[in-house]
Amino acid sequence: SYELIQPPSVSVSPGQTARLTCSGDALPKKYAYWYQQKSGQAPVLVIYEDNRRPSGIPERFSGSSSGTMATLTISGAQVEDEADYYCYSTDTSGNHRVFGGGTKVTVL
Amino acid sequence: QVQLVQSGAEVKKPGASVKVSCWASGYTFTSYAIHWVRQAPGQRLEWMGWINTGNGKTKYSQKFQVRVTITRDTSASTAYMELSSLRSEDTAVYYCARGDYDVLTGDCLPPHSWGQGTLVTVSS
After folding, report:
1. In angstroms, what separates the C-alpha of A84 from chain B's closest C-alpha?
2. What is the rounded distance in angstroms from the CA atom of residue B47 to the CA atom of residue A90?
3. Cβ-Cβ contacts under 8 Å for B20 (sequence gap 6 or more)
4. How many CB atoms lie within 10 A of CB B53?
5. Which of A14, A39, A56, A108 has the most CB atoms lying inside 10 A of its own CB?
6. pLDDT one-digit tens code per residue, B6-59
């Protein structure tokens, strides 16, 4: 089965930049999506199609993808950005839709 | 305002089935697909399947294919997810989420608007 690999945790000081990675063999051909999930809440889509930001998502969230790695960047991280972040994509056939293991972002 | 409102928490015994509902409001129900995603305590999100709310066609994750059934009632703007042969590992929060259709392929794009989640506890 297909897997997306994310580092388990990232720590950043307020105002600094956090870069979260997501590795998958099909990412050169398939889009990555990123979800933010705060404790006890439902996920929120923050980036879609590698680098597009839904309305209402702050500009400090941006996405990119190169080769087998997609990256979510939080520029000028704020305390309220503390959350788990999950990437999502599919294998090359489109039949296996998977989430990565998630990265816990700590801002302190 | 788009809303997906899910049914309340459930406690089930091993071997039983559970059916979770997801009522949509604030948009035309059949214009968007509904995904189902679950999350066991402390674990990652896990995609289970989706339904084309217009024609009722479904697509399931291979992991759940044998045990899950996703249906919809267009007159009630409600989607349902039924999971059978429950075991303790199925204890999780189950989410419904809305997804756009891919106009080229008819497939369903990843979820964006999510329901509040329904906790299903499987315990003897």
Report:
1. 10
2. 11
3. B6, B7, B10, B36, B80, B81, B82, B94, B96, B118, B120
4. 24
5. A14
6. 999 999 999 999 999 999 999 999 999 999 999 999 999 999 999 999 999 999
Show residues of chain A in contact with B61, CB under 8 Å.
96-97
Which chain B residue lies closest to A53 (C-alpha atoms)?
B112
Check if A88 contacts B (Cβ < 8 Å).
yes
Query: Given this model, what pLDDT does residue A56 score?
Result: 95
Rg, Å, chain A Cα set: 13
Judge: B115–A100 Cβ closer than 8 Å, yes or no.
no
With an 8 Å Cβ cutoff, are B62 and A96 in contact? yes
pLDDT, position B42: 93
Please, is B87 exposed, middle or buried when counting C-beta atoms within 10 Å of its C-beta (0-12, 13-18, 19+)? exposed
What pLDDT, on the 0 to 100 scale, is given for residue B106? 82
